[in-house]
Design goal:
Rossmann fold; about 425 residues; single chain; 2 domains; six-stranded parallel β-sheet; seven-stranded parallel β-sheet; 15 helices; about 40% helix; alpha/beta
Length: about 425
């Protein structure tokens, strides 16, 4: 006698970041949606349109999304100002004066207005929200309160516990802290990508909240067939790439550029080594390149479509990652894992990036340690020129643990456990009103 097959479970993903918007969080959310879909879930995504406050659109990121993945798009009010930078600055100053804590919070109202009728009709088994656009969690919390659906909040970045407080007013921080505290009362499960971020966030609340938290790192996808991935050994110059943003005033390339200049003075790097930096703010550092006299071996390029950037990474021989700070977990590191190439990390020792890099037996140097960076580059050049290049099998084996399907397996157990533990299906709007 055969048991009846279980009905397909349905998750509503709430994420302000999603393709075609081009950015690390959008790319990561696409990958997670696909991984959850591969686990057999029916996936619906509530997100914004291609208009964004300060990011470009890349239609290529929509390729490969399954036809049964429903995407509900609601324009975000601040996105209308994306093409008007002067007006954007004026509006931003006004919102700061009014104490508005996040420019994207205006999306809450149109998003809820659009999704409520859908919730009444489809009644998903689970709501999953993804930061760092914290309005995603706000919308998910309102749906949890109204429809009594289990809710998972995935914290990619800090919010109330963020240490960089000078860019917001005290009034804004009070609003952020109050909003996050409300979320913590309603959330059913918390996913964190960084242990230090989890500790800093949870330290603000009752110890019992830790029982709801799970650490799940970012993951990487297997490279699509169309992405070339060269594995050269000692042929021509050693090509290094940094694909992503630097963060002015927090983590920048000065130590790296100075180290390259040290080696360049010792023995010309022309024809032996080249660094390419591709990202949204890289061109700002051209004066630094010129000052250190390394323009013949360091090139800076603006942001490009994701597929093109992936091709550039595939052509490189060594990949460079520079995290935001000690608590952050850069998505770029995990994107690099898919290429199975040597990686150099510029991060402080007590950091999430250093933890993962060391776990994978990959070199890490402090970003301000000029001599340490120079020594690591010397060793890499020596290995390259002696045809001893490549990623050790021990590193490859550890990296495979971070594949997105393995990370999604952990998340899937949390998701399925919440649904199994829930008292029943989601409430209709009328039932929620009565409740």
């Amino acid at each position: 006698m055969h048991s009846d097959p279980q009905p397909q479970r349905h998750v509503l993903i709430v994420s302000h970041n999603f393709p075609p918007i081009l950015g690390p969080d959008s790319v990561l959310m696409r990958m997670w949606a696909l991984a959850i879909h591969r686990r057999g879930w029916k996936v619906t995504v509530l997100t914004t349109t291609e208009r964004h406050w300060n990011l470009k659109a890349d239609p290529g990121l929509l390729e490969g999304l399954p036809p049964d993945m429903e995407i509900i798009r609601v324009a975000s009010p601040e996105g209308l100002l994306g093409r008007h930078p002067r007006l954007r600055k004026v509006v931003y100053r006004m919102l700061v004066a009014l104490g508005v804590s996040d420019i994207h919070l205006g999306w809450e109202y149109p998003a809820l207005r659009r999704i409520r009728p859908w919730m009444r009709e489809h009644r998903p088994d689970l709501i999953y929200s993804r930061q760092p656009k914290h309005v995603s969690a706000v919308v998910a919390m309102r749906l949890k309160q109204e429809f009594k659906v289990p809710w998972i909040a995935h914290f990619s970045d800090l919010w109330a516990a963020l240490p960089y407080r000078e860019h917001r007013t005290a009034r804004q921080w009070r609003a952020i802290e109050a909003r996050e505290a409300e979320e913590m009362k309603w959330v059913d499960a918390l996913l964190f990508v960084a242990k230090r971020a989890a500790d800093m966030t949870l330290a603000r609340y009752e110890p019992t909240l830790r029982d709801k938290a799970t650490l799940i790192r970012h993951g990487y996808e297997t490279l699509p067939a169309g992405v070339a991935n060269a594995h050269r050994t000692g042929v021509g110059e050693l090509r290094m790439i940094h694909a992503g943003a630097f963060y002015p005033g927090i983590s920048g390339p000065q130590g790296l550029f100075e180290a390259i200049s040290v080696l360049h003075r010792e023995r010309s790097l022309a024809g032996r080594f080249r660094l390419s930096c591709v990202g949204p703010d890289t061109m700002e550092h051209q004066p630094l390149v010129d000052r250190f006299g390394i323009a013949d071996v360091v090139s800076l390029e603006p942001i490009m479509p994701f597929a093109q950037a992936q091709q550039r990474v595939g052509e490189a021989d060594v990949l460079l990652v520079v995290p935001y700070d000690r608590t952050s977990m850069p998505t770029k590191l995990f994107e690099y894992f898919a290429f199975q190439k040597p990686i150099l990390g510029l991060a402080v020792e007590d950091s999430e990036t250093a933890d993962v890099m060391k776990d994978c037996l990959l070199p890490v140097v402090r970003p301000d340690d000029v001599q340490g960076i120079a020594e690591q580059l010397r060793l890499m050049l020596l290995r390259w020129e002696q045809n001893a290049w490549g990623l050790p099998e021990e590193s490859r084996a550890t990296i495979r643990r971070y594949h997105i399907d393995k990370q999604a397996e952990i998340a899937g157990m949390v998701m399925e456990g919440l649904v199994d533990a829930s008292d029943g299906p989601a409430l209709t709007h009328e039932q929620a009103d009565e409740s």
